[in-house]
Amino acid sequence: MSGTVKSRARGERSRGVSVALHATLVVASLISLFPVLFIVFVSLRGRDGWQEPTRFDGFGFGNYTHIFEETKFLTWFGNSLIIALGATVVGVLIAASAGYAVSRMRFPGNRPLMWTFLVVQMFPMAVLIVPLYNILGQMQLLDSYGGLILTYCSISVPFCAWMLKGYFDSIPAEIDEAGRVDGLSPFGTFWRLILPLARPGLAVTGFYSFITAWGEVAFASQFMSSEEHYTLAVGLQTFVGQQKAEWGLMTAAAVLITVPAGLAFFVAQRHLVAGLTAGGTKG
After folding, report:
1. Residue range 136-152: average pLDDT?
2. CA–CA distance from 31 to each of 26, 28, 91, 264 (Å)?
3. CA dist., res. 22 & res. 115, Å (int)
């Protein structure tokens, strides 16, 4: 008498397929984590430890101590934090205002405004350096926090406006009408009713604006000339000389730079999926 063959439910994977899938995921995770772990490993090996990466001794915090005591890393860190937070706040406010206006109001140039934002995103940064340099020079904003903040807003606002416009489209217009019935002005409705409901979208655009300003190199290198105004992107270039690159110091600084970015992601991560989904499916 032949034995019965157990049939699998629809969508159920066999044991072999599950093992292969999990093995693939483990390998992919290790490949993704290896560069990060290697940077941390090199940063703990001293100034010249990167030359012998196969040795597993001589660990210490000498690179980190040297960065804090012998360089202006804290000044660069503070400058980057001021600029990144400023670009985030200003950029999100401008993008939210533009996105809400296009979503709720009808005015001449409504659709061309959003298409202009889209076209602006097509230009690479290298093309924009010279015109932005001339504009900031005429406004006397070169080598200043304000000039770099406005520059980063020019990068983040077009994308954020499109994202928030799609999110505002998902909020019922009846809420605006209720605000007007209660005597709120258009700005009061936007500030007191719509923005609190748009927190997931604001979290996504805020995270994007912060990361854009925090890790940008090209504009900061060209627009910041005095050492007291250096950002991390500019300051870390001093670790690379004509004869030798201080890879131990570079890796230690890279580890420290990831901390604010990780904290920003931790704060925004619970809103990221909802904000990206709404902004990507409405419009």
Report:
1. 93
2. 9, 5, 35, 24
3. 44
